[in-house]
Write a structure and sequence with these properties.
Layout: E1 4-9, H1 13-22, E2 29-34, H2 38-47, E3 52-54, H3 57-61, E4 66-69, H4 73-83, E5 92-95, H5 101-110, E6 116-122, E7 143-148, H6 154-166, E8 170-171
Parallel strand pairs: 1-2, 1-4, 2-3, 4-5, 5-6, 7-8
Antiparallel strand pairs: 6-7
Length: 172
């Protein structure tokens, strides 16, 4: 079976932890890390949080089955807007932001892609930042709240539930 490609935009502590959980041996996922700083991306790859890295948004998302926006809340909408034209049909995009209503309202204003957006909020984290503070077990036992926007097919929600389950969390 072909591995699903998961692109993580922002491989700091939260995104790096997700990458570590998904990129482990025997995983059904291929993880692509996307960011602005090539040195931090190389470090994320070296630590095993991703299989491939890029600073190019289009390159990072165009083959993704799932895209996870692991940026600050204020950057989620701008990044969603930038990547939306490059997404492949049927892909699903989610985020890890702690605020949902303004993000989902903003997405509804411009989202025209044949991919689907599902807001997400993992109830996990740390006060620390950066890939060096990531942990493969960060999401173990955590709850992740999924907030579908618009008409999201069951297949897309199932994809996200499976992703979070593989990372050790329970998606509701």
């Amino acid at each position: 079976m072909k591995k699903q490609t998961v692109s993580i935009l922002g491989v700091g502590m939260m995104g790096g932890s997700l990458g570590l959980a998904l990129a482990k041996r025997g995983s059904p996922y291929r993880v692509v890390g996307i960011g602005r700083n090539p040195d931090r991306l190389r470090k994320a790859k070296r630590l095993g949080a991703c299989h491939a890295v890029t600073t190019n948004l289009e390159e990072g998302v165009r083959d993704a089955d799932i895209v996870v926006l692991c940026t600050t809340v204020s950057e989620i909408l701008p990044h969603a807007r930038k990547i939306e034209p490059f997404l492949k049909s049927g892909s699903v995009v989610t985020d890890i932001g702690s605020v949902k209503a303004p993000i989902l309202r903003g997405i509804a204003e411009f989202w025209e892609s044949s991919s689907h957006y599902v807001g997400g909020h993992p109830l996990a984290g740390s006060e620390k930042t950066g890939i060096e503070h990531s942990s493969r077990s960060l999401y173990q036992g955590a709850t992740v709240v999924l907030c579908p926007s618009g008409d999201v097919p069951d297949f897309s929600l199932r994809r996200l539930r499976n992703l979070w389950r593989f990372a050790g969390a329970r998606a509701v």
